[in-house]
Design goal:
ten-stranded mixed sheet; eight-stranded mixed sheet
Length: 756
């Protein structure tokens, strides 16, 4: 029995060997899945440059054999390096959105499964998020007392790289442009005591601010002037103060005119080192120069407006020599240009000119060409003046009117161009008054008036001396005139776009105009011209542009389309509103963390738009239905969008107003919202006069309406979408919504859009 049993067992084993062989073959193959290759996953970060904001990871997951009906059935992501089994219960679903955002550097894993149960994972490492400001250190070149300048050494560094370092003697203010200068070669030089602010910007748009106080710059030489008058003359007394061990006064000089410091190193002047005073017998401006043994130099000017008279306004004196010259087409003309000096308003010295001998001018003119009669200072650098009052006689006008001549009056600080032919019918001698407003009070008033006219938003500063023009007796001709204000020397070409001109009219109203840049024969910017009318005060302003950041708030799909004609879902709209509100700095009241979405039974915490839906619900922009559902994947009607818009923008319906749409009358549930949205120009009707309140809103229509509500501009270039041609009606709105860019608004009205 035992032997037969063993034989039987052996026979049974032999019979089972083919079966066991087959089983062994199946095990070697492994678990049998569906036919086909696993999905392909491509991950693209946006942006890929350094940023202090979130990074969006766009997912392009493609199933094998899509033509045969296979498609992506599951798409999830998680932080860290994960295997496929982790995503059986873990990870965040992004199947509908095709992207996810991360807020910190690290490695992230994306899992995809197709309907044939093929699986794939792909990882991406994000390393361009930088939320730390640069390291910034400031050191003065010396802390010892000095009469010179102090160099501030600036050391700035950052892991993402330094983009720019700027400094200013003013601290920045919230929501205001900051007048500042770029730090060159890691240092800047200051010549006055004060507190200086330095801001370093890294390439991720983080910034660090530091301040340094400089208080060791002490003047070793100062100068004060005072005057007294009697007996038809004025006595000017100079009071130099010399500081410093071993320092003493070396020279004290004076000369007539408003003169620059280099003049006294080589020019003709009188020495009053011993007397400290000098007498003058003519009205005008005088300059005094002092130099100490340490090499410090200083100049001061004083205006003499009276020579012993009790009233300075009636004092006058003939100039000792002519300061002005008349030319026709660049050739000096021997004309009678009677010239006298008289005190103007305050301490201004205004010259009166009369031009009444045009015969020589006519001889130099070209009968067929354009002619320029130019009356100008001979040497404006050595003899700057406050103003000129130029009178043209009727004889001059009648002789020159037929010569197509233009009159240019140039006082150095300003020039006025006046077509003479427009003055032929003047009933009286026209008088042209051109004044340089050199007083600090005039400059302060000009800047205050400019700020009241809108320049305050830019924190503009003056770029030169203000001027006043008054064209008496020929106001109509002033429409063809130009006022030209000089530009500061050494102005970089990049700064020309930052200039504008403020004009204050006789009635006190003010405007800011762009002006026209004038260039000299070497192609250098020399002046800026405006049309001031018959009377105006003008000042050149310089200001940095106001920068406004616009972040992308709408995405396309993995197939390269924007989905222009797809109805926008409630979840997509909530996501757009949340992104736009975050970019504008606004926030919803209540819980924005994302946990609020749990209040909706159809919005689990893992839903891709859970956080945005929670924010929209907390702010009252959007709500759920009576059954506690948000219906995130449902579309919206035009009436529903209007209702969301007015809650989001906190807009009220017009009082007593209605709508012009017969299908959105007062009986419609969204009547007030439609009236408000239409009244603001956010939403419009159709050519047949209807509003179509129950029609679904497409994605293209949604971004168009949102852009209108925000006044969001559109760059000329942008992402390419397969379903958005350049001629598509909403192409501009889609370009704006689907990319991040900066808007630069200049004081002169220019707007520049820079794609980030």
């Amino acid at each position: 029995m035992r032997k037969r049993g063993l034989s039987t067992l052996l026979a049974a084993v032999l019979l089972l060997l083919p079966v066991l062989g087959a089983i062994s073959t199946m095990v070697d193959v492994g678990p049998v899945g569906a036919a086909g290759a696993p999905p392909s996953i491509t991950l693209t970060p946006y942006p890929d440059d350094p940023t202090n904001d979130e990074v969006w990871i766009e997912i392009d997951a493609v199933a094998d054999d899509e033509a045969g009906g296979n498609r992506i059935d599951a798409l999830r992501w998680a932080d860290g390096v994960r295997n496929a089994s982790y995503f059986a219960t873990g990870g965040t679903d992004v199947l509908d959105d095709g992207e996810f955002e991360v807020t910190r550097n690290g490695t992230y894993t994306v899992y995809a499964r197709d309907t044939a149960d093929n699986e794939a994972i792909e990882t991406i490492t994000v390393s361009n998020i930088d939320k730390d400001g640069p390291t910034l250190t400031l050191r003065p070149s010396t802390t010892e007392p000095t009469s010179g300048s102090v160099t501030v050494e600036v050391d700035a560094s950052d892991s993402s790289g330094i983009d720019e370092v700027r400094w200013s003697d003013e601290a920045p203010q919230m929501d205001s442009p900051w007048p500042s200068h770029e730090v060159i070669d890691g240092e800047f030089v200051v010549t006055e005591n004060g507190t200086y602010t330095v801001i370093a910007f890294d390439k991720a748009n983080n910034q660090t601010m530091r301040q340094i106080a400089i208080d060791n710059i002490l003047p070793e030489l100062s100068l004060t002037l005072r005057s007294s008058s009697s007996g038809g003359k004025a006595t000017v007394t100079a009071e130099p103060i010399v500081l410093g061990n071993g320092n003493s006064l070396e020279a004290l000089l004076w000369a007539a005119g408003d003169l620059p410091l280099p003049y006294f190193r080589e020019g003709a002047s009188e020495d009053i080192t011993a007397a400290n005073r000098f007498d003058v017998a003519s009205l005008g401006t005088y300059t005094v120069y002092a130099r100490d043994t340490n090499g410090n130099e200083v100049i001061k000017t004083i205006r003499i407006t009276t020579l012993g008279s009790s009233s300075s306004s009636s004092a006058s004196a003939s100039s000792s020599s002519s300061l002005f010259i008349a030319t026709m087409n660049g050739k000096q003309a021997a004309v009678s240009l009677r010239e006298s000096a008289a005190s103007g308003s305050g301490t201004q010295l205004v010259y009166e000119l009369n031009l009444d001998d045009p015969a020589e001018l006519a001889a130099l003119a070209s009968p067929d060409g354009k002619n320029e009669l130019r009356v100008a200072l001979k040497d404006p650098a050595s003899h700057p003046i406050d103003g000129v009052s130029l009178r043209l006689s009727q004889r001059t006008l009648s002789r020159l009117a037929g010569l197509n001549a233009k009159l240019t009056l140039d006082i150095g600080a300003a020039a006025y161009e006046w077509p003479i032919k427009t003055l032929a019918s003047a009933s009286e001698d026209p008088v042209l008054r051109l004044t340089a407003l050199r007083q600090s009070a005039d400059a302060d008033q000009a800047l205050a008036d400019a700020n009241a006219a809108g320049a305050d938003d830019w924190r503009a500063e003056l770029a030169g001396i203000p001027a006043e023009i008054e064209a008496g007796g020929a106001s109509a001709s002033a429409e063809d005139s130009w006022l030209v204000l000089p530009l500061p020397s050494g102005l970089a070409s990049a700064d020309l776009g930052k200039l504008a001109v403020f004009l204050k009219n006789r009635d006190g109203t003010g405007t800011i105009v762009p002006g026209t840049i004038r260039y000299d024969s070497q192609g250098q910017a020399a002046g800026i011209a405006v049309r001031p009318g018959a009377f105006a005060r003008a000042a050149v302003l310089k200001a940095e542009p106001i920068k406004t950041r616009f972040d992308r708030y709408a995405n396309g799909y993995a197939d390269g389309s924007f989905g222009t004609g797809k109805p926008i879902t409630r979840a997509e709209l909530a996501s757009m509103l949340a992104k736009l509100s975050a970019a504008s700095g606004s926030s919803a009241s209540g819980d924005n963390s994302g946990s609020g979405a749990a209040a909706f039974q159809d919005v689990p915490a893992s839903f891709w738009a859970a956080k945005a839906i929670a924010q929209a619900a907390a702010a009252g922009w959007m709500s759920g239905d009576s059954e506690g559902r948000f219906r995130p994947n449902d579309s919206l009607t035009r009436a529903e969008l209007a209702s969301v818009l007015v809650r989001w923008r906190k807009e009220q319906a017009p009082v007593g107003g209605g709508t012009r749409f017969p299908d959105a009358a007062a009986s419609h549930w969204a009547f007030s919202a439609i009236a408000a949205a239409a009244g603001k120009g956010w939403m419009t009707g159709y050519t047949d006069g209807s509003f179509k309140p129950d029609q679904d809103v497409t994605r293209a229509e949604a971004v168009t309406v949102l852009n209108r509500a925000l006044g969001r501009p559109s760059p000329s270039d942008g992402p390419s979408w397969s379903d958005v041609a350049d001629t598509y009606w909403a192409a501009a709105a889609i370009r704006s919504a689907s990319q991040s860019f900066d808007e630069l608004r200049y004081l002169n009205g220019k707007v520049e859009l820079l794609v980030r």
